[in-house]
Design a protein that fits this description.
The complex is a heterodimer of chains A (213) and B (256). Chain A starts with a helix and ends with a helix. Chain A contains eight helices and no strands. The radius of gyration of chain A is 20 Å and the shape is flat. Chain A has one domain: Orthogonal Bundle (MetI-like fold). In chain A, helix 1 runs antiparallel to helix 7 and helix 6 runs antiparallel to helix 8. By secondary structure, chain A is an all-alpha fold. The longest helix of chain A is centred in the first third of the chain and has 36 residues. By secondary structure, chain B is an alpha/beta fold. Chain B has nine helices and ten strands. In chain B, the strands form two sheets. Chain B has a six-stranded mixed sheet, with helices on both faces. In chain B, strands 2-1-4-5 form a four-stranded antiparallel sheet, with helices on one face. Classes of the chains: A mainly alpha (213), B alpha/beta (256). At the A-B interface, helix 5 and helix 6 of A face helix 2, strand 6, helix 3 and helix 5 of B.
Chain lengths: 213, 256
């Protein structure tokens, strides 16, 4: 495998990183909205978001990407592969992060919300200043764990024709007929992204376990 | 900013509850409760666990919604609209059994948050007010620490200062010493006594009968969601009228 082939893999890597970042940030924003709706105390809103979460947790990511990529084309919304997989992964991430953060919000003791209410703080301030800072801390290990899943999940974008790291590996492998070498390198590149995050997540978990009182 | 404001006519009672009823589903937690609290009056509310005393004071700042009757705070009807609830909460401070300090904020930040966010004070004003009140509860040297670094008694004194930073007209205490180790009870009670001496209107749910004798203008005894008896402490302790009161006092005083 030559330098050009390796550079091609790095371009694929760049798109994997870009896709992961977009899906995590957009999915995070939407996920926060899902988590807040899920804990809003408004029955209709809670049921709708519960259903939304159930759909995305109960179906394969690959199928979700197919539905966004092919399904939207069928009803006349044309998107290129980049936009389609970004939307698909964002929806996927919003449901998972929404559920993780719902759990974290509910794990903050009720007394915190009561104290904030007794101090005449309104909903936005109660959430922003009191509940969410504590919930984020609680959720960090699980959030990082999901980010690792998401990075690996972006490899499914290759199936709808988006050239990220896995598809770049596939293309090179078909050209130079060295699948073991090529996918070995692809695997190492995924590992270099995910492993430090996993270690960091484990570190945070230990840190919070010891500081819990 | 236009806010519904509490009237400060001093002849008017601070709190009136008339015919207040409260249900949790089919379970009735409060039955037809009538209480009038004058300005500057100190009330001790006692009764066996499950008697509805915590529920009652939690209705006054609408941490619990009530379904029947009326509650007026400072002449304003506490309805179910966010606007009146907020107006009442700005004037009514509360101290909880479990302190409920915000663990991610320092002592000083705990005291500054609500005055900045709910009253619109500048950070400098809020800090000045917070430091002054931390001084008053004798804990100013801990201002930069986090709640977890303090003892239970210190945390509860911070919680009192945090509530006072809103300059409330009424303070509600929900079993403020029940979660404390015995050696820390006194420092919290002393803080409450000092507050009472300054003329604060107070409603305290507590089993500290020494505190009731020393501070209360009236002791109210509740059982099964109803007010059974109310009297000035001397009369309440020496000559309880009802069998349930006598039984309760026998148990609680016998323990000490």
């Amino acid at each position: 495998m030559g330098r050009d082939e390796f550079l091609f893999l790095l371009i694929g890597l760049k798109w994997t990183v870009a896709l992961s970042i977009v899906a995590f940030i957009c999915g995070g924003i939407a996920g926060l909205a899902v988590a807040l709706a899920r804990t809003s105390g408004i029955a209709a809103l809670e049921r709708i978001t519960a259903a939304y979460i159930a759909v995305f947790q109960g179906t394969p990511l690959l199928m979700q990407l197919f539905v966004v990529y092919y399904g939207l084309a069928l009803i006349g919304i044309r998107m290129d592969a980049w936009a389609a997989v970004s939307v698909g992964l964002t929806l996927h991430a919003s449901a998972y992060l929404g559920e993780i953060w719902r759990g974290s919000i509910e794990a903050v003791p009720r007394g915190q919300t009561e104290a904030a209410k007794a101090l005449a703080l309104r909903y936005i301030s109660r959430m922003k200043d009191v509940v969410l800072p504590q919930a984020i801390r609680i959720s960090l290990p699980a959030t990082i764990g999901f980010l690792v899943q998401l990075i690996k999940g972006t490899s499914l974008a290759s199936i709808v024709g988006f050239t990220e790291l896995t598809r770049a590996g596939n293309i090179i492998s078909n050209q130079i007929f060295q699948p073991i070498t090529v996918f070995g390198i692809v695997g190492v590149l995924y590992f270099l992204m995910c492993c430090p995050l996993t270690i960091y997540g484990a570190h945070l978990e230990r840190k919070f376990a010891t500081s819990a009182h | 900013m236009t806010q519904a404001a509490i009237r400060t006519d001093s002849s008017e009672p601070m709190i009136t509850m008339t015919g207040v009823g409260k249900w949790y589903g089919a379970f009735q937690a409060l039955h037809n409760v009538d209480i009038t609290v004058s300005r500057g009056e100190k009330i001790v509310l006692c009764g066996p666990s499950g008697s509805g005393k915590s529920t009652l004071i939690r209705c006054i700042n609408h941490l619990e919604a009530y379904q029947e009757g009326e509650i007026h705070v400072g002449g304003m009807l506490l309805g179910h609209q966010a606007k009146t609830i907020d107006a009442v909460r700005r004037e009514v401070g509360m101290v909880f059994q479990q302190f409920n300090l915000f663990p991610h904020l320092t002592v000083l930040q705990n005291c500054m948050l609500a005055p900045v966010k709910a009253l619109g004070l500048s950070k400098a004003e809020a800090e000045q007010r917070a430091r002054h009140l931390l001084e008053r509860v004798k804990i100013s040297e801990q201002a930069e620490k986090y709640p977890a670094q303090l003892s239970g008694g210190q945390q509860q004194r911070v919680a009192i200062a945090r509530a006072l930073c809103m300059r409330p007209k009424v303070m509600l205490f929900d079993e403020p010493t029940s979660a404390l180790d015995p050696e820390m009870v006194k420092e919290v009670l002393d803080t409450m006594i000092a507050l009472a001496d300054e003329g604060m209107t107070m409603i305290c749910v507590t089993h500290e009968m020494g505190f009731a004798r020393q501070v209360a203008d009236r002791v109210i005894f509740m059982a099964s969601g109803s007010i059974v008896e109310e009297a000035p402490p001397a009369e309440f302790f020496s000559n309880p009228q009802h069998e349930r009161t006598r039984k309760f006092l026998g148990e609680i005083l016998g323990r000490h």
